[in-house]
Amino acid sequence: MKEEIRSKYQAVIGLEVHAQMLTKTKAYSSDVNEFGAIPNSNVSVITLGHPGTLPKMNVKTIEFAIRMGLALESEITEVQNFDRKNYFYPDLPKGYQITQDQTPICTGGKVYIKDDNGNEKAIKITRIHMEEDAGKSIHDVDVHDTLVDLNRAGIPLIEIVSEPDIRSSQEAYNFVTEIRKIVRYLEICDGNMEESSLRCDANISVMLKDAKEFGRRVEVKNMNSIKNVQHAIEFEIKRQIELIEKNVIVAQETRSFDALKGITISMRSKEAANDYRFFPEPDLLPIKIKQEQIDTIKSEMPALPRELFLKYTNEFGLSEYDAYNITDNKALALFYESIISHTKNYKSAANWLMGDIKSYLNTNGFEVREFPISAETVAELIAIIDTGKISSTVASQKVFTALLENPNQAPLEIAKGLNLIQESNEDSILEYVNEVITQNPDEVERFKNGEKRLTGFFMGKLMQISKGKADPKAANRLMTETLNKL
Ligand code: ADP
Ligand code: MG
Question: pLDDT value at position 428?
Answer without folding.
Answer: 83
